[in-house]
Design a protein that fits this description.
Three copies of one chain form a homotrimer. By secondary structure, chain A is an alpha/beta fold. The first copy, chain A, has 19 helices and 25 strands. Chain A has three domains: about 325 residues, Glycosidases (TIM Barrel), CATH 3.20.20.80; about 190 residues, 3-Layer(aba) Sandwich (Rossmann fold); about 45 residues, Golgi alpha-mannosidase II (Immunoglobulin-like). In chain A, helix 1 runs parallel beside helix 3, helix 5 runs parallel beside helix 8 and helix 17 crosses helix 19. Chains A, B, C: Keywords: Glycosidase, Hydrolase, Metal-binding, Zinc.
């Protein structure tokens, strides 16, 4: 368990730096991230680098025994660069250019900007790449934030056409794959293809999807170009990018492939996230001060997979923030709890944002570990407590590696894009569906891996696929070879790779192992809720329901009151023909876990547990104190069996 | 009763065509519409026509005994045309140009595009105009759909100025008619007049109205130009355009005048329409799977008038669609019911959209009579049933012509435009008011004609005018000559043709037959609902209420609790000084019908009846089974007196 | 008590003018405002003035004994001017130019337009400046209406850069004051600084604030340029501008300084205002026909300060209007009541909008004192009644000057801008908070002055500061010298003049008199409402809450249930650490008033009282009749002690 912090020396008088370094170290923090927005100070005028201040900051921090993470400053090109190359500014979907004056004001497809980025990153890497205290580098900052991917610029258009040529080889093949005969959308050449904005009605969904795939590749390539420079000059450092929670604009699996990152780092703001995502208002109300119990864990488990087992929290909420519709103060204990929660899910490092609240500019209402007057904030005091606890307890300071879970949940970025492009009903959201399944498993006390469908899943006893748009032969082969129980949710196998309905009808290739066909689908207004029972439990479908036909030996395990099948199975494979109300998802997964030989329990409301090494951690996000389900003879290394709101404990099973 | 279907040979392998034709004919379908989006296949490159595939498609279908409706392809100009003439792309109200990539991406005022359309239509008409199996031609597709009228292009501006010059003769006359002295809006010349977009606050309402009148004329002229070509080359075919439901952007009466169409065809999607229009949420919930009982009938009755008695359903919903906020599967029976309903209202042909669900592109989630795997869909099976029933029953296959109703409801397009331009309260919508009156009459078991105020109304016993902005002398003359009962709703006679308040106050010229004046009007937030009684029934005004004064011999039949008159009358003319809650509209129309000697009944909830020839049809849109109000000795030619949800029956009164 | 009316001779035939003048005078009206939208008639073509019609109008009105207010016509530049100088059109935040076709279509920063305005105003002032019947001049009309300030034009950019240079002297100083090191936002020169629109995420709040300060100065300077001309040519007239209610886009205190106005005139539309502002829906429902009891009074009291004691209502609602989401007819009596209410608050003149409803153009649904058919409207009849009452009663016709109140509420424009720029929670609105405090004081029967924090406050016994972003030393000095009770609300002292958090934490300099610090703040979703008691009264915080620490001798008077302090005090200074539910604000102010030796009472719901001279007026905005709290031996000069809805009475305490 290692603690870090984000620090911006350029924002404070040099006279404060030494004291800051000393106090950071004394607090028990080992890692400090710096520099990722400081381009205007690194290069005040075109080509004139000014490293002296950064040299001093690095030495001051290193001198206090701290390890450093250096950020490349490309998320905020300075004004002189924009004035020299105005085409670096990105273009909105309505054709307007964005302005300078905040951050992320660059077109990711601009070759001018790519060149400028490599220039500054190379200079920075040459100077600091082999510094012994610099243990990691971060590229840019939160790629895609503020909806800055995509850009609709001329540069994006040209590169999109090139990308399409590479993917489709001939324009005839593209017209065929896209079905452009529909509405006479056929293109005479790749040069004739435009971006899919400003169409009077829906653009072709595959046009939109290929544009999203292209933009996802652009993001990955933008990062990769910096990585190639950093690998050369900083050969021993961990290279990473700080991803965001619940963020799906690019495919993180593809981004991470071929060692583009050494560790998956992400920025965790659980309370603002809870307020921002599509949760029922009742849940937003209940968890306003603790954050939803699964909102951080969901991304911990996802980024652990993206980092091939290694993940950091690069920015951790340290108190109230400034960017959600409402920004409450976290309940007492949460700032500490989130650190333990991240560690329990396998984090190597939890780095708080930020050392001291900046009293000016855009983030002045964003808290840090210190108040603007330089006293520890309430969150800072909680971090101090956690640091002391960890230092005092060997079982906590040297955790074992997290074990592979027995349960996998498949999350797929392209599915998110396809169902955003084609929600069909305005309340359908794929990630929300995945989250609902994930929450159900966590309420059953299970540890979960969130994984890509393209990895080897043979070690899992239960594989849950809340939905996956395209089911290819490789996945069906995995199922056939697998011993696991498999659960597929609605819309699974409903599309081909070219965004069309499979010729055999959905669920497409899944029919090889589960003979059935989806005849019709429907989206449901909130007042339309087909009822059903599963094992005596009553519930309804919401958002989405399918009319399916069981073929061959497929069995109907549960049906809607109107007799349409609700759950179908053959052998170890289940299919759920609708988005079921939450309690039914839990019942269903309980059955599947039982069939997989996995023991479950029903945790108290707001309670979550997670195992790491030989420890079991418990976290109370609920409004009431609860007893944790520890064995009677468990040894507590942190806290005890009675857990108050916002508290955490950990025990060893004897 | 004839059945049709929409078919897109260009979207399927040629190897499927013959089987498709055979199966279409075997299903009992007689008419097939083709070609209306196929420009890129008819003319793959500028000037190079490729008719061979269309020749084969036509011959294949005709060879199976099918009659054809050919669509001109002008709703989707191909990419080479847009690249050659980029000014064909329309301009949005904010000044941005729309892009290629979907459909309807053309500026209806572009003279370039008009020329290109005539070129392709002429070529097509010359080739197919006299083909014996081609019984009808459709121009373009759903003119105005996706809010593509108006366009704010330079071409539209020039033509608008010309239109204004023709209407107003001198700019002084225009300044006077528009009242441009207000806010110094006077124009020095016609060339100085702009389009009414991007004004810091409201544009002059008559500026907006004249622009809407102009755009309505542009749509009609665009269609007319094609009709002139088609008449020449296809002299015996029925010429038509496929209109839309609840669509009021252009004046369909003016569009249809001077034989611009032979039959009014329209596209009927009852469930998506129910979800999309301004109905109370309670009704949207209740009728989510059956559609609102009057939502199709309303347009059947409207288009029957627009077609001077002849109307077709060119596209009929055949299952779930893709474009409403939510898209449920219709209740069992509805796909069949809608056909009978259309026939009962006088349709000659009901043509389903579409033969087979297209697995790719924008409408892949739009159902058809066949699933993408080419088996009949649930809707297809219902059509099969209907076709067999009709074939088996002479009384159904050879229906009499629909008789003129005894009740007329006046619908007026300019009133819709004026009250959209000047809602005055954000929940006031004219068409919704008309629909509320129409629904009341239908709940009373009455057949209704929806008509223009400009036709001869002398044959009706009851004329209901839910509102009409401008009451001219011609209409008052009709009232004076008429024997009918007349009911006028609020805002009637509230405007002059130049969008001003009449100098004698509203209801303007109506005062000649009903002396009264509207002193003040008010729009009502949902919490403000002045109460009243009519004949002991309690209710409220919603949306709109007027403070009126009865003059001369005018009698106050009902008043609000605050003593303002609610219903006024003199002799056969009634005026309703507010938008009353629904049950009061029904009570009021019941009284008026009684005074007109028309017998009414209160149908069970969700039940509707409609007479054609010697048959009475009954339709159950409600959640409960009901007994239809057939005489005890009626002869049923379809179904029986107990009607389940989604079912239809028909009987002869003996 | 003098009555006025707005009249537009150019909109009516000359044959009506003499009769209009006669009827206006007969009604008891003494003042008529004319000409403020008539540029196209004053100067029909560039440089060709046509004064003859205006001469006649002036003489006709003056001949009837009426006094005139002349408006400069610069709110509506005519089309020939726009055609000659298209750059006069303003630019929206998205970069689009607004069009001609309504009003306020000018860029306030356009130097071309400034020159044109001075040209027309000079010509007008030369001709009419010394006319004996013209007693006042109004510049432009409702500056800033329709969100027409700001403009994002090139002209605005250039002038903004100049303004910044003047304020900040060097770009280094600006970069420092703005904290531009954050996100590398540093500017190399003043010329490099842009407008704060179209940034991918939030612009720097101080960038936004300085732009608002600049735009506020632009508005004041635009007005001042006209005033300089008018002072020269109309040396004896009252010069004014007609402000709007609840309008805060520019700083009215700065606008009015250095005699830029002689009297503060404002346009009062209480019912539309009630519907438009951020009131709870329950209040909008309750007061839909009477307007909220404080919505007019709030601005009467504010503009009385802005006018240094002199204020007029330049436009008073005379019946239903046309621009709110819904527009009900006022309850009987309100049009009369509003005049008395304005007088009670100190108005010299109440001028109704408008003489006669205009039957055409944008405001045809806006009522006047006459209907379009020239009979007195219901509102006109109420004005007639009021005029007769006043004429018949010396105590009413010659009211004393309004006395300074014992209670002051501080309202600060920059605070509004800062908290709009940084709401932090989407339901936080500063003016709404001020209004809530004001309402509480008025419910306690108190007369209130609304004042700037920069004036001498030493004469007040109670000073209420619902919030003020920046607390400077001058204000603390006032507190120290003052004998008054002071109440500060949340966010007070939370910012520096450069939009940063004070280095000593909020409430900044207030700590000199009230030692305490705000550690953390939070915004509250509607479901999150920390509870507390004050003096046994239960309530909650809404929208905003602070975690504060009492330092030194500061006493915690009340605390939240979770133990955070809610009300703190030391001596005469109180601080409220949250936005409390309304009844708690009232309890708190009741305590503060008691401590200040001010007697309070709890008025019946909807009842308000206000003293002027030796009269006390009472107004009933509530749904029930109430008895007014007059002494038993009071002498009523208007009405009596039992007050119906919409009625007013006035008495002398004996």
């Amino acid at each position: 368990m290692q603690l870090g912090v984000c620090y911006y020396p350029e924002q404070w008088p040099r006279t404060m730096w030494a004291d800051d370094a000393k106090r950071i170290a004394e607090l028990g923090i080992t890692h400090v991230r710096i520099a990722e927005f400081a381009w205007s100070r690194m290069e005040p005028r075109a080509g004139e680098f000014a490293w002296e201040w950064l040299d001093e900051a690095v030495e001051t921090l290193a001198g206090a025994g701290l390890k450093l993470v250096l950020g490349t400053p490309t998320a905020s090109p300075p004004k002189w660069l924009i004035d020299a190359y105005p085409d670096v500014l990105p273009v909105r979907a309505d054709g307007t250019r964005w302005n300078f004056g905040s951050r992320r004001h660059y077109d990711i497809s601009s070759e001018t900007y790519r060149r400028e980025c490599l220039r500054v990153v190379t200079a920075m890497a040459q100077r600091y790449g082999r510094h012994p205290s610099i243990v990691a580098w971060q590229t840019d900052n939160e790629l895609g934030c503020h909806d800055t991917v995509p850009s609709y610029s001329p540069a994006a258009l040209t590169r999109f056409q090139t990308w399409l040529r590479r993917r489709h080889e001939s324009v005839e093949a593209l017209n065929d794959a896209w079905g452009n005969v529909f509405w006479s959308m056929e293109y005479p050449s790749f040069e004739a293809i435009g971006l899919p904005n400003l169409t009077p009605t829906d653009a072709n969904p595959i046009h939109l999807l290929d544009f999203r795939r292209f933009m996802s590749d652009e993001v990955a390539q933008f990062h990769r170009e910096q990585i190639d420079v950093l690998r050369e000059h900083a050969p021993t450092a961990d290279l990473l990018h700080n991803f965001m929670g619940f963020f799906t604009t690019f495919d993180h699996y593809r981004f991470a492939k071929d060692n583009a990152i050494d560790v998956a780092a992400w920025d965790s703001y659980p309370i603002a996230r809870t307020e921002s995502i599509a949760l029922p208002d009742e849940q937003k109300a209940r968890y306003a001060r603790t954050a939803h119990p699964d909102v951080s864990a969901f991304d911990h488990d996802r980024y652990r997979a993206i980092g091939s087992g290694r993940f950091w929290v690069m920015e951790q909420q340290a108190g109230p923030v400034n960017w959600a519709p409402w920004n409450p103060v976290p309940a007492k204990g949460m700032v500490r709890l989130w650190a333990y929660e991240a560690f329990a899910h396998g984090a190597e490092l939890v780095s708080y944002f930020r050392w001291r609240q900046c009293p000016y500019a855009q983030e002045q209402m964003h808290s840090g570990l210190n108040l603007p007057n330089n006293e520890l904030s309430p969150g800072g005091l909680e971090v101090q407590q956690a640091a002391r606890e960890i230092a005092a307890c060997a079982a906590l300071s040297a955790l074992g590696a997290p074990a592979r879970a027995t349960v996998a949940v498949v999350f797929d970025y392209e599915t998110q894009w396809m169902f955003e492009i084609q929600r069909h009903g305005k309340t359908f959201d794929y990630q929300t569906l995945v989250f609902d399944y994930y929450e159900s498993l966590r309420e059953l006390g299970l540890d979960v891996d969130i994984v890509s469908s393209r990895v080897d899943l043979s070690a899992y006893a239960l594989v849950v696929v809340p939905s996956i748009a395209v089911i290819d032969d490789a996945l069906v082969n995995q199922i056939e070879r697998s011993e696991a129980q498999w659960v597929f949710g609605p819309r699974s196998g409903s599309k081909t790779d070219s965004f069309a309905i499979p010729s055999t009808l959905p669920p497409g290739a899944l029919q090889r192992v589960l003979p059935m066909q989806v005849l019709e689908v429907e989206t449901l207004r909130p007042t339309l809720a087909p009822a059903l029972s599963i094992d005596g439990a009553r519930g309804v479908a919401i958002h989405w329901r399918e009319h399916v036909r069981a073929n061959g030996e497929t069995h109907v395990d549960a049906q809607f009151d109107d007799t349409w099948p609700a759950v179908l199975s053959r052998g170890k494979v289940r299919y759920v023909a609708g988005w079921l109300s939450h309690a039914l998802h839990r019942t269903l997964l309980e059955q599947a876990a039982r069939d997989a030989g996995i023991e479950t329990q029903r945790l108290a409301e707001g309670l979550r547990i997670r195992r790491r090494g030989d420890l079991t951690f418990a976290f109370n996000f609920g409004a009431q104190s609860v007893h944790v389900p520890a064995p009677a003879d468990a040894t507590f290394v942190l806290g005890n069996a009675l857990l108050k709101t916002g508290d955490v404990c950990a025990w060893k099973d004897v």
